[in-house]
Design brief:
Number of strands: 21
Radius of gyration: 25 Å
Shape: elongated
Strand content: 15-25%
Distance between the termini: 74 Å
Number of domains: 3
Largest sheet: 10 strands, mixed
Structural class: alpha/beta
CATH class of the largest domain: Alpha Beta
CATH topology of the largest domain: Rossmann fold
Number of helices: 11
CATH architecture of the largest domain: 3-Layer(aba) Sandwich
């Protein structure tokens, strides 16, 4: 639209740390504008009083600044040209390539009507045995990684992106360092996997409030490939705590009263509108969301993980196992609430039984470790349980283990037979006779 036909105002009535207000008409919620050349977005309308959030902040903006309304909400041009590309929070290329062509669609639309969803039933194998064995992912599921900030969650996300058996992987990076951005770009390029990966990146050098656009950009692209192309799409979001921190910054600058842990009172709704985009569609396409939520000092009761737990269908916990010196997917604190929809149905018949047996024996090892720490003598069974737990952590639970579903089950059978007798694993006799390794 030519500037001559755009709505332009030059009298700002109020300026705060992040917003400005102007009297204007025929303006819509979420509409974009520029204030003294800085990108802004309409966040509140009361009568003819329009409040705009300025992404770069209001410092240095005079009361007679030129406010130009652009007549549209944030949008993304969707099409097959998105594949293999890196974009910023506004959907602009940051990889040196051309601007992609396609249909322009507004971001942040409503989630799918529940009656248009299908019961999730398709397996998403990640190649990480600690996930696929105990907490199997299902297409259309939404599940977070809970991890301390010093854990290698970005490496896990990159690994999932390369190994996951899906049509498209869409990565939304929020508050990443430039090194993280280069890491993802180099890993994907070197693996030759760029043709099915799309990335939207906000780094620590970019304004924090731009992080708020990244999930909607990623999910708008995901909806195109899942709904229009009937593809299985896996959306990886890292880090949702950075997203929530950006929400808190904006809320604070708008002088809103904070809720728990300095987070805005709308936190639950803000997170839910993202996670509820996960769906299995009747036409065969699906959107699965795997997101990282970093924990401050391991505090699971913080508002961000606490609200996330109510919205999502389980969680995956990363922790460092001191016995083997590796980061593992913790079988005790991790949970996929939809795993039973595919275990033993889309995977081998012994999957549910061997998962339960291995976790039970791992728990016996934890009890044995408690006995040892308290100075009690260990039985022969205790010693074998501890040896099994070390092998189980190293060869199954560790995030660097790359096995397909059949190899993962065979390996677990092998570990069981190495440390226990058939009668000690408490499994169906026909399965023991069929799969036990001598």
């Amino acid at each position: 639209m030519a500037k001559a036909f755009q709505k332009i105002y030059t009298k700002i009535t109020q300026i705060t740390k992040a917003t400005c207000s102007v009297k204007a008409t025929d303006v819509g919620y979420d509409e974009l504008a520029t204030v003294e050349g800085r990108l802004a977005q309409v966040v509140k309308i009361i009568g003819d009083e329009v409040t705009l959030q300025i992404f770069e902040g209001t410092e240095g903006i005079p009361s007679n600044a030129e406010v130009v309304f652009l007549g549209k909400a944030p949008s993304l041009k969707v099409g097959d040209q998105l594949a293999g590309r890196f974009f910023d929070a506004y959907g602009n290329p940051i990889d040196g390539g051309p601007v992609p062509e396609g249909e322009e669609r507004p971001i942040g639309g409503p989630s799918v009507n529940p009656v248009r969803r299908r019961q999730p039933s398709e397996l998403i194998a990640t190649g990480i045995a600690g996930i696929d064995l105990n907490n199997t992912l299902v297409s259309g599921q939404k599940i977070p990684f809970f991890a301390d900030p010093d854990q290698p969650f970005n490496q896990v996300m990159a690994t999932v992106a390369l190994r996951a058996e899906t049509d498209k992987i869409i990565l939304g990076g929020m508050g990443m360092t430039y090194d993280d951005y280069l890491y993802f770009k180099n890993v994907f390029s070197n693996a030759g996997a760029l043709d099915r990966i799309i990335c939207f990146m906000n780094t620590t050098e970019d304004p924090a409030v731009e992080r708020l656009l990244v999930p909607d950009m990623a999910l708008t692209a995901a909806e195109y490939f899942a709904v229009d192309k009937n593809e299985k799409v896996l959306v990886l979001l890292s880090d949702m705590t950075s997203y929530a921190d950006a929400l808190a910054i904006v809320s604070n600058r708008m002088d809103q009263i904070p809720s728990k842990d300095s987070m805005p009172g709308s936190l639950y709704s803000d997170l839910a509108k993202i996670y509820e985009k996960a769906a299995q569609f009747p036409t065969g396409g699906s959107i699965t969301i795997l997101a990282v939520t970093t924990l401050s000092g391991g505090d699971i009761t913080h508002a961000v993980p606490d609200n996330t737990g109510y919205i999502t269908e389980g969680q995956l916990f990363l922790r460092r196992d001191s016995d083997v010196g590796k980061v593992i997917v913790d079988p005790f604190r991790s949970l996929s609430r939809l795993k039973q929809l595919v275990q033993g149905k889309k995977t081998r018949e012994d999957h549910p039984q061997i998962m339960n047996a291995a976790v039970r024996l791992y728990a016996d090892a934890a009890n044995a470790k408690t006995k040892l720490e308290n100075g009690f003598d260990l039985t022969d069974y205790d010693e074998r349980a501890l040896a099994f737990a070390r092998d189980y952590s190293e060869y199954i639970l560790s995030i660097d283990v790359n096995l397909n579903t059949t190899e993962m089950l065979d390996k677990t059978w092998s570990l069981l037979s190495r440390h226990f007798k058939p009668a000690e694993v408490n499994m169906k006799q026909e399965l023991v006779e069929k799969y036990w390794t001598n």
